[in-house]
User: Fold this.
Amino acid sequence: MYVSVIMKQLIFMLFLLYLLPNYAQGPIDGYLKGKGNLDVAIGMNFSRANEYYGVNNQSFDIPYSVEMLSVFAQYGITDKIDGVFSLPFIFGKEEKKFQDLGLHLKYKPIEFNFSNGANWSQLISAGFSFPASDYRPDVTGALGQRAKRIPLRFISQLKFENGLFFNFTGAYHFRLDEISQETAAMVLEENPDFNLRPPANHYSIVGRVGLATSKHFIEVFTEYQKTLGGVDYEEGVVKPSQLYGVDFLKVGGTYYFGMDENGIAVNASYIPALRRNIGNIFSVGISFIIKHYSKK
Assistant:
């Protein structure tokens, strides 16, 4: 019974490890706000899954659902540098608390304008995420084991005068967190032969195509994530959730409609294949966006 409870908690944490980087953090896209301009988005996301995929691609009947509120802001520090802020709030059964705060910088060092009106730009982004409250990592609804990460992104975008754009983003995530002595003791008590190790880094590749106009924004995307190592879920075997390697292929889309100073966005995504230590998650979300423009 004790092992069963622990495993259910670890599985839920793995789902949250997937959700927070992809929804709460907000998009690190190919657009900058411009000096003094600010976007603030408040969103609600609903996610469901009825299967979980673990060791050797085995599927397990582990249903899952979660609701998450997120706050996202992007501010134009200069015309070429934006600051990005994100903070999620998880509605768990045992705790309802803020989770990991994300702070990022986005910089556009290269931009080229073509004679036909098209524009190509290259951006880079770096950030840091860390716990924003004293949430407990060992209860249902927690983000995970209070992880600390440094994500680096390289964004290449081609856009045309009519608003059509193509975006390619590559990211590498460095893990800085360590397994706590309490977690290590718990795991070794149940699984004495387990080989403790540092959490594995992972990378992701995202391709986007869409249309951006003054009032409308629509895009479809495909994302692939791969963990460089890590361990796999096995039924009845206790392992630290920090060490799970999470791989997936995700498809989705976003639609935004807005006026000069506010707007609304809806999004949806699904994980259809290449699932490792993750479920067949379907998610839908809605966000309200408030824009503030600097008076120049």
Notes: The chain has a mean pLDDT of 86. The chain has one domain: 2-292. The two ends are 64 Å apart (CA to CA).
